[in-house]
């Protein structure tokens, strides 16, 4: 007994030091800006002993170093929608991805992730949180738990470690911390349930609860009210932050001429604009370069550095000028990071876009870019959510004359965005279908998502004044999705529509593509596969030779081609024989 008392004293004392370090980093990371409140507690030495004794009743070998909540952190949000953002911040600290030093968490050590929900598999917020946890790759996906609860308990529990050693104890031991994230409504109910429900259910109370059955039933009723309150709070927030009818002064266009005009109008000096335009030219250079990754990185860092200089200085004196400049330069930086095609850079882009969309929730282009970014990291629900918001905003603006629009988007740009939404929507459904197929080819969702990809893309052809290059992209994608259903994935069901669509879309696409000049390997692959499907092998071989030439050229620039494309080319040309 003396040994465990000594160990518990040592651990509790070290945990108090760890708590102080934890509070410092939470303040530095400005956690208070994204949550309603947070609080910490250290388990006193007597409670540690008590927990060991209780655990040993069912597990005789249980030792004090197995306790995972020596240090506790509870984070309370006003809205359920904020929970994934809080999770992202905490995991960014655990993985040391935020630019602070020192970070007290043991780097990349996430021991446990459990999401308690009364609605397993049907809660979009839970799905969003799970996807956020997956993004950081701190633990195997199958170890992320989604647990139900008879008491309808809802909370996110993470277990990590503070890099705080304990004197005269195991030298490898570090202070474990249990992090709970819940809404303010859930937190209030949880406290009431803990006092009158949980303690009674577990027998952890000295004073028995009177009328336990009635108390239990009423706690469940209260929980239903709490869940409704949380849902209403989110609805109120959605209404409050999406002011479609509130005039915004910043245009969402990014052409040099319009950007310069808007900045000059807001009293931004020509010197600052010229510096900004120089970096935009670097971004344009990256867009046209073969080996563009480093150029995009340089441009992104250039935008970031210039913004820091402007933010700290007095070169832009008007609030409106600073506001407009921040919007444009942050959109440019985020687009560069999104174009780099590196996971962590995409996460950085998402962070920038999320900040901007909270300030400009009705701007369709920000939602569109978020849809792109989430698609890059396979967060399909989030991608489609923002594409839907973009589509709704575009539909609202399309009903108005240009001069009456609250967001400055000319018809031609609105048209482009409208078509691009349909293309990206299709890709979001196709990519998810492809991921499901790789794990479970027989899943019914494969065809469902592929058909949604086809339908969403086909709707884009109904847009008035469709430009030829966009129409070509839509037809190419429709042809590809038809091939996916009928030929590549051979999904079961009634596929006659797609079987007939292949030659129809191919006939529409043929005159639009000059094979000897086309450099789009994906587009050429769709044509090649279509000719193979309908038995026109010589035409398919002609395209295969063109792809082979482009693959060699792209490899010189360090670019890789999809193995499946190379396999189809080699099969046609007999390169494997």
What does this protein look like?
It contains 20 helices and six strands. It has helices spanning 2-28, 45-56, 83-94, 124-136, 184-202, 212-241, 256-265, 270-288, 293-312, 319-339, 343-359, 364-376, 380-398, 411-439, 444-459, 468-488, 496-509, 521-534, 537-556, 563-573, and strands spanning 37-42, 71-77, 105-116, 145-147, 155-162, 175-183. A six-stranded mixed β-sheet has the order 1-2-6-5-3-4. Helix 8 packs parallel to helix 10, helix 12 runs antiparallel to helix 13 and helix 17 crosses helix 18 (521-534). The radius of gyration is 28 Å and the shape is globular. It starts with a helix and ends with a helix. 38% of the residues are buried.
Task: Write a brief caption for the model.
With 577 residues, the chain is an alpha/beta fold. The protein has helices spanning 2-28, 45-56, 83-94, 124-136, 184-202, 212-241, 256-265, 270-288, 293-312, 319-339, 343-359, 364-376, 380-398, 411-439, 444-459, 468-488, 496-509, 521-534, 537-556, 563-573, and strands spanning 37-42, 71-77, 105-116, 145-147, 155-162, 175-183. The longest helix has 30 residues, at 212-241.
């Amino acid at each position: 007994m003396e040994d465990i008392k000594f160990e518990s004293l040592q651990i509790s004392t070290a945990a108090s030091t760890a708590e102080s370090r934890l509070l410092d980093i939470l303040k530095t990371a400005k956690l208070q800006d994204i949550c309603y409140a947070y609080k910490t507690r250290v388990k006193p030495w007597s409670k540690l002993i008590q927990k060991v004794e209780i655990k040993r009743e069912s597990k005789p070998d249980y030792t004090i170093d197995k306790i995972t909540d020596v240090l506790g952190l509870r984070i309370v949000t006003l809205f359920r929608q904020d929970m994934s953002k809080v999770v992202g911040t905490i995991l960014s600290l655990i993985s040391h991805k935020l630019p602070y030093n020192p970070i007290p968490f043991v780097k990349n050590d996430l021991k446990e992730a459990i999401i308690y929900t009364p609605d397993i598999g049907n809660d979009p917020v839970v799905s969003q949180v799970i996807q956020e946890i997956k993004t950081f790759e701190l633990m195997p996906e199958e170890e992320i738990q989604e647990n139900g609860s008879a008491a309808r308990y809802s909370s996110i529990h993470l277990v990590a470690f503070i890099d705080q050693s304990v004197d005269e104890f195991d030298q490898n031991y570090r202070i474990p911390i249990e992090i709970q994230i819940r809404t303010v409504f859930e937190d209030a109910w949880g406290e009431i349930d803990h006092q009158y429900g949980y303690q009674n259910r577990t027998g952890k109370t000295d004073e028995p609860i009177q009328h336990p059955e009635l108390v239990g039933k009423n706690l469940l009723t209260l929980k239903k009210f709490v869940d409704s309150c949380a849902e209403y709070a989110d609805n109120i927030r959605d209404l409050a932050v999406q002011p479609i009818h509130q005039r915004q002064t910043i245009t969402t266009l990014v052409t040099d001429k319009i950007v310069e005009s808007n900045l000059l109008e807001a009293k931004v000096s020509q010197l600052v604009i010229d510096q900004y335009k120089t970096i935009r030219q670097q971004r344009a250079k990256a867009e046209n370069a073969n080996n563009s990754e480093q150029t995009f990185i340089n441009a992104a860092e250039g935008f970031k550095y210039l913004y820091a200089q402007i933010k700290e200085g007095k070169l832009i004196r008007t609030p409106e000028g600073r506001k407009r400049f921040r919007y444009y330069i942050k959109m440019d930086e985020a687009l560069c990071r999104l174009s780099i095609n590196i996971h962590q850079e995409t996460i950085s882009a998402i962070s920038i876009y999320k900040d901007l969309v909270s300030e400009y929730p009705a701007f369709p282009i920000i939602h569109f870019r978020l849809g792109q970014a989430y698609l890059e990291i396979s967060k399909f629900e989030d991608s489609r959510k923002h594409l839907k918001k973009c589509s709704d905003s575009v539909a609202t603006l399309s009903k108005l004359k240009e001069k009456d629009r609250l967001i400055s988007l000319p018809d031609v740009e609105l048209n482009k965005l409208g078509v691009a939404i349909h293309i990206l929507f299709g890709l979001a459904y196709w990519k998810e279908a492809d991921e499901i197929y790789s794990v479970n080819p027989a899943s019914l969702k494969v065809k469902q998502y592929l058909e949604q990809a086809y339908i969403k893309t086909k709707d884009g052809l109904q847009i008035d004044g469709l430009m030829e290059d966009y129409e070509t992209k839509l037809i190419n994608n429709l042809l590809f999705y038809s091939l996916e259903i009928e030929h590549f994935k051979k999904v079961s069901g009634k596929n006659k529509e797609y079987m007939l669509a292949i030659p129809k879309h191919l006939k529409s696409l043929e005159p639009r593509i000059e094979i000897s000049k086309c450099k789009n390997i994906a587009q050429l692959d769709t044509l090649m596969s279509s000719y193979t499907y309908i038995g026109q092998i010589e035409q398919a071989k002609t395209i295969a030779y063109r792809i082979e030439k482009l693959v060699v050229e792209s490899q010189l620039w360090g670019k890789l081609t999809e193995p499946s494309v190379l396999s189809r080319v080699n099969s046609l040309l007999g390169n494997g024989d």
